[in-house]
Amino acid sequence: MRVRAYRFRAYSSKTTAGVLETQLEVACKLYNALLHAEQGKYEENKRTMNKTELRQLALDLRKQNPEFQVLHSQVAQQVADRFYEARQRFFEGLANKPKKKKPHRYLSLVYPQSGWRLSDIREVGLGKNKRKKARLRLSKIGFFTLVIHRDLPLEQVSQVCVKMYPSGRVYVIFTVEEPETQEQALDEPAKAVGVDLGIEKLATLSDGRYLENPRPLERSLDRIRVLQRSLSRKKFLSGNWFKSKRRLAKEYEHVKNLRRDLFFKLGVLLAQEYDLLVLEDLDTEGLIQKGVTRTRRMRLYDSSFSELRAVLEWEFVKRGKLVLPVPAFNTSRECFLCGRINKGLTLEDRVFHCPYCGFTLDRDLNASLVLLRRAGWVPPSVPVELRPIPPLPSLGLRRQGGAVRQEAPAFRLGVAHKLLPTKYT
Predict the structure, then answer these.
(1) Which among 52, 91, 172, 296 has most CB atoms closer than 10 A?
(2) Full-prediction pTM beyond 0.85?
(3) 31 with 83: CB under 8 angstroms?
(4) Residue 82 lies in a domain
(5) Same domain assignment for residues 361 and 266
(6) Is 423 among the domain residues?
């Protein structure tokens, strides 16, 4: 079985939002109480409590303390599960030791089985704006209006999570268990595409198209600096501090949404056209650490290669198609035609020229073709002359999460400015 999450934006009244914030604070107190009890238990008996004991302790604390009774019983047990999982990750060496949580950083509640009901599902809007809305009732919290922008298999929902983001926006996440998609058996004529990732051009395809790098963080950096400076001048945990914190969180959330929107649209586009995706196996953390200048490190971080790769892999695997990562070593310096290495190529050189065979091509396009050849999917015959691929329609990106504060360049898939040579051999 495969676990899949469906996230929808939720709207509520001020009263319901206030109740949600109160319950988040209570859940944080319960988490800290379990942490304190666990520490005392270990000091006394030199042993830790298992999941069943933690769940029972959470229910006992809920019965003894009237403040904890505002939580649904299964939500209280899920708080115990969250603490148990955090402790297990510490034992496995995957995370730091669990510590006391701060109320303004505990942002989600989970209803594992019951305590929620979805009703009044209806269609609203016309044309492209046509979508569905539904009414969600969460026990001991209230009602939320959900904007359902894609089909949700209600009969397969295993748990519901309500999450308040640092920006103040509320989302409801439905966790669904569904069978895994079987991989398709590829024949020789199957379509394959190599994708080279970079800073100047975010993704260059082996068919000659490329995706411009929007650099959302770099374009929003001035606004972020102003908001960060304003936040640093506020008294910690004061009312104005929380207001400034939410404004800053909205700006970061806008950058994240813009980036992910672009990645998913690119993934859908490639998954619909190709059967095999060939990606370079990049060490993103190593690239950022080895960045020569601060600007280069920031642009590497802004490009988010790991997230882009994860999204592309998800779109292909979801449709039962194959993803093949290949080593990224010397892909930019290797000649696609003769396979020899041009050791004199630098980062400033945007055109690849082979000193051995005279092959000349756009640097990123050559790298994408090298990736395709390393995967063993080079076309057996190449046309003598290649025609420019007409630009695809705009991806229709829209800035969300606030007004546009700075004009952004158009995001589009275009044709690489250096085409393949007229002859390969």
Answers:
(1) 172
(2) no
(3) yes
(4) yes
(5) yes
(6) no
